[in-house]
Design goal:
The protein is mostly helical. It has helices spanning about 10-30, 35-55, 60, 65-90, 95-100, 105-115, 125-145, 155-175, 185-205, 215-240, 245-250, 255-265, 275-294. The chain is about 80% helix and about 0% strand. Keywords: Membrane, Transmembrane, Transmembrane helix.
C-alpha cells in the first residue's frame, strides 16, 4: 500500500461510492433510449482515457499480445452487455431492486471462477451465494405475489438487472488475469473502446438517433461519464493502491443504499417492503461471498 497520500483514501472512497450511487438516478432522469445513454456514458469516459493512453502509454499498447487483446475485447463485449441490460432494467423496475440485483456480480464471479477457472468455493462462499440467491428470489417475486410493485414490469426489469450482473461478472473474469500483465490505462482503453463499438451497434440496430437530443440530455450524458464513470470508478481504482481490496469491495455495497435514498429524494420512489427485505438479504449474501473470496 502507498503511504501518506495527499488525499484521505477513506474520504476518496466515500466520494466514489456516492458518485457511483448517482448513476441510476441520472439514467432514470434521462428520457433518451437506454442504449443511447449507455453509449454516451462509455464514450465520454473513454475519450479522455484514450487521449492519456495515446500520450503516455503508446509503447504499452503496442506490447499487448494478440491473445491478451482478444480477451480484453471479450471483456469489452461483456461490459457493453452489462451497461445495456442494466440501463434498460431501470426503465421497468425500481431503482432499489435494479441496483441491488446488478451489484450481485461478486456472487456470479465466484460461480464463474468455480465453473470456468476451477477455483475453489469454500463453504462460507457457498453459504453467501445461497443467501444472495434467496434474497434475489424474494426481491423479484415478493412484490409480484403481494400485488404491489414499483415499476411498469418489475419481473422483466429485475431479470435484465440479473443479466447485467452476469455480464459484469464476465467482464471481471475476463480481466482477472489480464490486469496482471497490462497496466490500468492501456487495459481500460482497449476494453472501453470495444464496449463503445458494441454499444454503438446496439443503438444503430435499434434505429435510435445519435443526435438531436436537447441540452438537458447531453448534460446527463456528461454527468454519467464524469460522475459514476471517472469520479466513481477511477477513484475506486486509485483507492485500491491505499486500502485493502476487501475494504473497497465491501464499500460498494453502499451503492444500492445510496441509490435507493437518492431515488426517494429525487424520484419520490419508495421501495416496497419485499424489495427492502429481499435487498438486505442480497446485500448480506454479497458481503459473505466477497469477504470469503478476498
Amino acid at each position: 500500500m502507498t503511504s501518506n497520500p495527499a488525499v484521505s483514501p477513506k474520504a476518496a472512497l466515500a466520494t466514489a461510492v456516492a458518485a457511483v450511487s448517482a448513476g441510476a438516478i441520472l439514467v432514470r432522469l434521462s428520457e433518451a433510449p437506454s442504449s443511447v445513454a449507455a453509449f454516451y456514458r462509455v464514450l465520454f469516459t473513454t475519450v479522455p482515457l484514450g487521449a492519456v493512453a495515446a500520450w503516455r502509454y503508446r509503447a504499452d499498447l503496442a506490447r499487448i499480445r494478440p491473445r491478451d487483446l482478444a480477451f480484453a475485447a471479450l471483456s469489452g463485449v461483456a461490459l457493453a452487455v452489462h451497461f445495456a441490460a442494466w440501463f434498460e432494467s431501470l426503465r421497468w423496475t425500481s431503482v432499489a431492486a435494479s441496483v441491488t440485483l446488478v451489484q450481485a456480480q461478486p456472487v456470479f464471479v465466484a460461480l464463474g471462477a468455480w465453473l470456468l477457472l476451477r477455483e475453489r468455493v469454500t463453504r462460507r462462499m457457498a453459504a453467501g451465494i445461497a443467501v444472495a440467491v434467496g434474497g434475489m428470489v424474494s426481491m423479484s417475486f415478493g412484490d409480484f405475489l403481494s400485488g404491489v410493485a414499483v415499476g411498469p414490469r418489475p419481473l422483466y426489469g429485475n431479470a435484465l438487472a440479473l443479466i447485467g450482473a452476469v455480464a459484469a461478472a464476465g467482464y471481471v473474469l475476463a480481466g482477472r488475469s489480464l490486469r496482471q500483465r497490462i497496466s490500468l490505462v492501456p487495459y481500460v482503453t482497449v476494453v472501453y473502446g470495444v464496449c463503445v463499438l458494441v454499444l454503438l451497434s446496439f443503438v444503430l440496430a435499434a434505429g435510435h438517433p445519435l443526435t438531436g437530443y436537447p441540452p438537458r440530455e447531453w448534460l446527463l450524458f456528461v454527468g454519467l461519464a464524469a460522475g459514476p464513470g471517472l469520479l466513481g470508478h477511477t477513484v475506486l481504482n486509485w483507492a485500491l493502491a491505499h486500502l485493502e481490496s476487501s475494504v473497497v469491495s465491501v464499500s460498494l455495497l453502499g451503492e444500492p443504499v445510496g441509490a435507493t435514498l437518492l431515488a426517494v429524494a429525487f424520484l419520490s420512489e419508495t421501495p416496497t417492503p419485499a424489495t427492502v427485505v429481499g435487498g438486505c438479504v442480497v446485500l448480506l449474501g454479497i458481503y459473505v461471498t466477497a469477504a470469503a473470496d478476498r
